Amino acid sequence: MANNHHIYDKLINITAAEHVLVNEQLKHHTYTHLGGMADFYVTPESYEQVQEIVKLANEENIAFTLLGNGSNLIVKDGGIRGIVMNLQKLNEVRIEGNNLIAQSGARIIDASREALQVNLSGLEFACGIPGSVGGALFMNAGAYGGEVKDVLVSTLVVNREGDLLTLSAEELDLAYRTSNIPDNGYIVLEANFALKEAQYEAIKEVMDDLTYKRESKQPLEYPSCGSVFKRPPGYFAGKLIQDSNLQGKQIGGAQVSLKHAGFIVNKDNATAKEYINLIQYVQATVKEKFGVELEREVKIIGEDL
């Protein structure tokens, strides 16, 4: 406990007491409403503070985890040890000519709306993606035929040593729902997107259409991690799950959505263990019936109870 006080004192010295929470329940910070406690939950307000927190974790040899806005994530019931950092306070979006520069903590959906306001096209696909800009780069987020790598020019990151690096989009190895950001331990601070001028009405029409498709087909009335599985080559995950008669299948409070089979919802105060068990049950059933391996799109982190 003495060590915890020591780390706490150093953290509030870097940022401020109101930005450092001790034993914070992570279920309050995930879209699934799942997850145990973080030892320290820190929300820095500047790039310099991010660098200092990374350096502190290195110096003290304490575990460090970056949490996005928790939309494509399951945190286990035992929570996360060490420092958990959230960049939600770094959320500015600015326009420079035909480029949109967004800080990591901004929601990608808000970036797409900012682009619309200045008649810039290219981020329409993101108008229904709930994740942060940093999270969108982390997994090369995409929807309805568009993805981050189509418009990303460069990014500013902090590396494992706490140094600032500017990287081109090519240096991130962006592919279907992946990048090299996690492997390299990069923390995205901001992203630069190259967009194109277009008519406001034309951009808005596309965004309205995509928003309607999302709201009419996805189970937004319940907490969930979004689309659970990657699209298997030659198939659609939702169709395979549906054809396996798994819609409505429930383990504890977790349920395969009746509205969209590709989603698992927290219908009734599920635990992370129940949610993960249901994911594994779906994978095993689809494999048995169709011989297809469903690969998770959602990331699972933390410790079991």
Automatic annotation (TrEMBL):
It comes from the Bacteria. It is an enzyme of class 1 (oxidoreductase). Coiled coil: none annotated. Its EC number is 1.3.1.98. One of its GO terms (biological process) is cell wall organization. One of its GO terms (molecular function) is FAD binding. The keyword Cell membrane does not apply. SUPFAM superfamilies: FAD-binding/transporter-associated domain-like, Uridine diphospho-N-Acetylenolpyruvylglucosamine reductase, MurB, C-terminal domain. Keywords: Cell cycle, Cell division, Cell shape, Cell wall biogenesis/degradation, Cytoplasm, FAD, Flavoprotein, NADP, Oxidoreductase, Peptidoglycan synthesis. Its cofactor is FAD. It is found in: Cytoplasm. Residues 34-213 form the FAD-binding PCMH-type domain. Pathway: Cell wall biogenesis; peptidoglycan biosynthesis. The keyword Cell wall biogenesis/degradation applies. One of its GO terms (cellular component) is cytosol. Its main location: cytoplasm. The active site is at 177, 227 (proton donor), 297. It catalyses: UDP-N-acetyl-alpha-D-muramate + NADP(+) = UDP-N-acetyl-3-O-(1-carboxyvinyl)-alpha-D-glucosamine + NADPH + H(+). Belongs to the MurB family. Cell wall formation. This is UDP-N-acetylenolpyruvoylglucosamine reductase. It comes from Oceanobacillus zhaokaii.
